[in-house]
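Why show two proteins at once? Because comparison is the fastest way to build intuition. When a single record is shown, students tend to memorize it. When two are placed side by side, the eye starts asking what differs. So, the first record is below.
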Amino acid sequence: MNRKRIFITGATSGIGKIIAELSLKRGYEVFATGRNEEALLSLSKLGAKVMQGDLCQKADIHRLCNELPEIDVAIINAGVGAFDNAFDLSEEEIDRMIDVNIRAPIYMAKYLAPNMIQKRSGHFIFIGSQAGKVATKKASVYAASKHAITGFVNGLRLELAPYNIKVSAVYPGPIDTPFLDKADSTSSYRNSVKGVLLQPEKVAMEVIRLIDHPKREINLPRIMGATSKIYAAAPALVEKLGKRFFTKK
């Protein structure tokens, strides 16, 4: 009963790695992808079927999806960020956020959905970000990429509903993972939010629960779900009252 086939992108570090490990412990058949060969080897030793790939490359995305058997759950987790003003980012940093955070998830859904449609079952779980609902200083491009995924997920859910395919989204705030160190080499952001950092194990467990109990979306911490709704209704007021939050980067 537990032999669901789970595909996880960005499985070599952070919450993706923990999701893969927890999925294996639950008896799921895990297909994990990422760029880090050593981390993939570690997952392979635990029983995962590993597939190396760079989600910046369309050819790699196409190959990965073609090599997969029919899967039950696709967890689109891979993401990158670079925290800086839009006018200070390099073109390479901008392109990478667009490629990994927007293009890759859309292509993955495009290539994986037809098999799910054919068998009339399946589940996509997208790992978004609270930045996809509320943008902040020095995260304009990152927020744009996550806003795009929020819109894509909401539309895709409607498109796949007639085929009994579930589409879920997880919107976490900052998580205590290597992502923060890569996004901000100065560590100033990590230090400014250290009191509210989410533990990766908690986020991973919420994702695992979604596999057997699909929901439309999960906001972490849950208070941020309410905050984002207020922001949508009165953005100028929220930005004024929460100025310290919007300038933590």
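Second record. Ask yourself what differs from the first in the token line.
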Amino acid sequence: MKRKSHPLLGIHSVLMMIFIYVPILLIIIYSFNNTRLSGDWEGFTFDWYASLMTDDHVLEALMNSLTVGIVSTIVATLLGTVGALSLRGLGRRWKGSMNGLMYLPVIIPDIIMGLSLLVLFNQMHVPLGKATVIIAHITFSMSYVYVVVTARLAGMGKQLEEAAADLGATPWQTFRHVTWPQIFPGVISGALIAFTMSLDDFMVSFFVAGPSSTTLPIYIYGQVKRGISPEINALCTLLIVVSVVLILLAQFFLNRGKGQKKHKMLPI
């Protein structure tokens, strides 16, 4: 017999959704407003989106964000996956300690992460630029990949790998034909999350970016200080859409991997 939830819980959920999503919805709506006055609605237009495509500063910030996001995602995915695989065989005590260290960049405040990396680069006399932004993004993105891949490894167990070894498979054959197909959805999901976090990051990038490495979030912040314009609303809308699509894709790959696993475990 199902327990009925209290009506106040439903009201609370609705109010929470309104509080979270109404400001985002307003940004999206006013990105199509046919006037520069944000408070007045004067009609529907796509002009602000078209003007973004001809703005050299926006295009430069976009290319910086894509470059940083792609490079940092590739490296973070590789390091996070290898880290999850290598720490899998550790004892419980050491594994718990290493997991805590790998989870730390996820829970540590962004301002502390950005400031600590800035101090590190200054101490090492590394000039701030695109390279420092990439290194910073790898630092926090790697943990997201590690968390997702570790969860996939914990869910698959070691029975299939042990069975493959008993049948004479080499460690490489076991990894290629057993482990990798099982964790691949998690690797893709972790990579998509890492790219999303890189694309949306402002705080860490703000500390370690140089004058020629302005990313889209930093560009938006600089423009908002002068006032909210329809172009900024349009740019924020595009970032929202891309972020939502990437998160949905990451969730799709995770669910697909779980479905494949259940299907393979069904008795024949």
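One difference worth noting in the second protein: The CA atoms of residues 229 and 237 lie 13 Å apart.
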